[in-house]
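SAMPLE LOG
Freezer: B-3
Tube label: C17
Construct: single chain, 152 aa
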Amino acid sequence: MSKHIKKVILMKKFIINLLIVVSFLGLFLTINYLTRNSDEKFIIRGIKLEFEGVVTGKIAKRKNLYLDIKIKRENKSDTIIEASEFISEINIGDTIIKKSSSPYFYRINKIGVKKIPFIYIPEKMITSKKIPDSWKDSLNTNWKPVVKKMNP
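STRUCTURE (predicted):
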């Protein structure tokens, strides 16, 4: 085989490998972009969510590791929400209220009212165009405890 043919074959292999690498890189970047957008949509939906009910149980993700609570809502299906580090402050029979346009829910019982984070907001979302203007001031003031630096 001549040197010229060997060079052509090597060039074709190089181009094919380069196309494969570029295709995987494009796929990775597309998936990364779509995932970030869906995270923002999920967080916005969580802030807009509204419900009210009574705690009927605590749910263990693993044996003796209770992180979620089950809420009975009037004329609606039960809801399960994550309470994680606040699980010890919530008891069966407590009332839970989550108002629309708030990243918090409120636990109400005989002792009083406790404001508990419902959803955490990545710091990068503060400048997002998807965040309604009416929330912008809240992100820097009364919502500041739920705005977190998160890994990219």
